[in-house]
Amino acid sequence: MKPGNHTFSVSEFLLLGLSEHQEQQPLLFGIFLSMYLITVVGNIAISLAIVSDPHLHTPMYFFLAHFSLTDLGLSSTTVPRMLVNIQGHRHTIPYAGCLSQIYFFLWFIGLDVFLLAVMAYDRLVAICHPLHYTLVMSPRCCILLVVMSLILAQAYSLTHTLLLAQISFCTDNIIPHFFCELLPLLKLSCSDTYANRCVLTYWGGALTILVPLLIVISYVRIVAAIVHIPSASGKWKAFSTCSSHLSAICLFYVSAIGVYFIPSSADSASKDRIAAVMYAVVTPMLNPFIYSLRNRDMKSALKRLLSRRALQSP
Is the model's pLDDT at 266 over the cut of 50? Predict the structure, then answer.
């Protein structure tokens, strides 16, 4: 069957999930429901605290609010569907639903990557050029950086989804995953996926090599600037503003490396599922804790937000 032929016989895909053992399904449901609820509450609380507190109306927290909403979207793309499948004992997803899930998943993943790079640039300007910070990181510049991140993430997601819609699936419809992930889906196609894999290589190189390289260069300059700060308290203050962001970067890219750079093995499907859980479920859940527990201003804003909510409740 040639690429572009849409007379495929597969109308839905079977998601094997994290485990094929029925006795483990209630436990998995409870674990992932708890993780998802923590993710929703944590990321919404971060966003509300930033919006409602004038002290946090700065470029750093402007980007953090968008990053929290992106994490919420990333987790919401995969976990609710998995929970519905577990509860309904039906692990299928329609073809159109699978494409939609891939589109939004890749969009939020790309947006996460670009926002991490934007946040690194923000820290670079704040520490290396403090006198020009308010001029460089103006509200217009901040909005432009977020819009550019949205456009690039959209291009990344839309390119893969449109190419995926052009290939055919014949009889094999079993995806060894808990959501529609791009690589397992390409392996099921009975069409030529050369174009898809070329685009995957180029975009994957940009997101997993070029963007991290830019982040590394930013932090090399940041470290060089911190070293030249005369006082120990000044060095610690400068480093503390970057520690949460560095933790989020490490958490995200370590799990991504688990998917794309660890050599495949006979148990590669299990490895991919575990890595996907890390960057699609665990990372969005932990980021609110990373940015709140290690940030005095954020903790104060969250306390004020909770206090206001408590006073407003009957």
Answer: no
